[in-house]
Amino acid sequence: MDGLFGMKLFKLIMSLLLLSLSHQLQAVEQLEIQALMPGMVVLTIDGERVTLKTNQVSPQGVKMISANTKSTVLEIDGQQKTYQMGTTISTSFTQREEISEQIIFDKHGMFKSHGSINGQSVALLVDTGATSVAMSEKDARKLGIQYRIDGQETRTSTASGIAKAWRVKLKTVRLGQLVERNVEGVVVEGNYPRIILLGMTFLNRMKVEKEGNKMIITKKK
Prior knowledge:
elongated
């Protein structure tokens, strides 16, 4: 009787562990292959950097089977697949689907929208003429960006001429469903630009098309 009870208890505990692992895997939104070396891979899982050696398993349940300088074999949810450098795997560990956002220009002919930077909501002006994601010191302070400490001092062209600026790395930049990590930005001294410019350091990762009065921005596969 005790043996039967013990077996039932063991099965219950194993079921709970498997259920917990399943929930953990489903919670992962994005995995990216960042670096490859013989017998080692560097991943980013939901923004968390993870280094795995052969047969090691990450806290999120991703197992590294093998790796060289060109590709890695990962076991995800019991399935082994080969991934190349730079590959991004999205929700539920499936290959990223094509995602598009459409923006209609306003009465001034500008493509304005809302998004977020480092998880905080911001107004954006989509500007294919801007080389990077550009913001004023005021906006940088609101976002908690330590540009004078962490940034690299530079110069940039503005409507008023050449201005002092700082290059920074933005953890995340989001436009609708389009999300990119580690995007280069620039903080411009003073109050320019009035609205954050979503420039080419974000847009060059996308396919950008103009059709009539709208702009279609699509995530490259």
